[in-house]
Amino acid sequence: MKDCVKAEVRQILTDYLEQRNHRKTPERFAILDTVYSLNRRFSIQDLSDELEKSNFAVSRATIYNTINLFMKLRLVICHRLNDGTLYEACHSNENHCLQICSICGSVVELNVSDIADAIENIRLKRFRKERFSLYLYGTCSSCQARITRRKKKEQNIKQNI
Ligand SMILES: [Zn+2]
To answer: Which positions make up the signal peptide (predicted)?
Structure first.
């Protein structure tokens, strides 16, 4: 993530904490920096491992509470996928369109401007749109190839009986 984005999100967190007279604990800023340095979707475990690597041991409870705060501030988005919950820094990228393989669980971010345009143009009553997440489920090409190979193998066995 670009340094200017990191500075922006730090400012959002600083403003929020100052306005509410909350303490500006170094843990919260370390977690924010780590989230915005990962450049990928992550689980709470991934985040905890990453913080430990930089010698910043933070309790699970603190990580969960901080991530919940970041979601409230719209700095982090949560994806509930087949394999569990993954989080992602979202300050500079609010809309998400993910392609998910139902077999191996691989996740690929799609950039489909047609979908974004279509959603932009939808008129909703008494509702102001802010952002969207779209999950497309299917079978990735490697899983598809594996299935085809297995089917061929089964056919060959049948023919040889
Ligand atoms: Zn797959």
So the answer is: none
